[in-house]
Amino acid sequence: MIPSVHHNDMDCETEVDDKGELCKDWARGGLCTIHRPTMFLFCRKTCLCTGPYRFARS
């Protein structure tokens, strides 16, 4: 039996944002939802694991 491969699987315990602290600022600006493909490349932990809602403006 061939094991299934999931290329988009991610482990939130080991995931790192490529753009560091900028990701939190961008999430506050709504970019996790406005520019999903770009944010997936650079800010996976902030946008997918932590959640952009944690950084939303009040």
TrEMBL record:
Ranges for domain ShKT: 12-49
Return the protein name.
ShKT domain-containing protein
Q: Which organism is it from?
A: Heligmosomoides polygyrus
